[in-house]
C-alpha cells in the first residue's frame, strides 16, 4: 500500500502563496506595470504631490508575437505622453515629465511659447505658468532664468526626446539638462491609483524611526487626507 503524502502545514501554504505573489508582483513591476509617486510640483496641475501612479512599462517595448501585441499593445512614444524616465543627470533617480519633442523635431521657445518645426504648440490644456515674469535669453542672467522662457532652436537627435514639466515656470527639465535617450524611458503614466495630500516621502532614508513615523501618519490620515476625486483618474 502506497503511503499518502504528509499534509502540508498552513504556515507552509501561506509562505508558498506569498512567495508566488511576490514573484508575480516582481515580474509585473519589472516588465509590465511599475508604481511611481509624485514627490514634487513640477507637473502641476496635471499631477499633484502625493499622486501615486501605475506606469505602463510595456507600452514602449517590443512585442515579438501576435499574442503579445493583442494582449499588451505597444507603440512608439508620442508627443504629449506623460513619461517616467531615468534622470540624465542622475540615472539612479526616476523623473516624470511630459514628452514635448520627438526625434527629428526642431524645437524652440519664445516668451514661454513652444514652437515645434516652426509651428506653435497648443499646450494650453495642461501647461500652467505661475510666474508672470518673462525672462529673456540673455547672457547676463543665470541659466535657470535665461533658458526658462526662451531657448533654442534645438534639433532633437535620433533616439532622443525633449521632456518638460507642465508647471513650466517651476520644473527642472530638458531646457537645462538636454534630451532624454530612448533607453532611459521606463513607461507612460497610465492611472492614479491613490492621491494622498498628507505629505509624501522624498525618498531619502533617515532610519527606521522616521520611516515608522511616516507610516503611522499615513495610516492615521488615510481617510481624511486621501484625494478621493483623483482616485482611479487617468492623467492626460
What do you see in this structure?
A hairpin with a 2-residue loop joins β5 and β6 (113-116). The protein is of the alpha+beta class and 236 residues long. The model is unreliable at 20-25 (pLDDT under 50). It is built from 5 helices and 11 strands; from the N terminus they run αββαβββββαββαββα. The chain has one domain: Ribbon (Umud Fragment, subunit A). The protein has helices spanning 10-31, 66-71, 143-146, 174-177, 208-225, and strands spanning 33-37, 51-56, 82-86, 94-101, 106-110, 113-116, 119-120, 151-155, 160-164, 180-181, 185-195. It starts with 9 loop residues before the first helix and ends in an 11-residue tail after the last helix.
Total number of strands: 11
Shape: globular
Mean pLDDT: 83
CATH architecture label: Ribbon
Biggest pleated sheet: 7 strands, antiparallel
Q: Tell me the β content.
A: 15-25%
Distance between the termini: 67 Å
The CATH homologous superfamily name equals Umud Fragment, subunit A
Keywords:
Umud Fragment, subunit A; 5 helices; 236 residues; alpha+beta; globular; 11 strands; four-stranded antiparallel beta sheet; seven-stranded antiparallel beta sheet
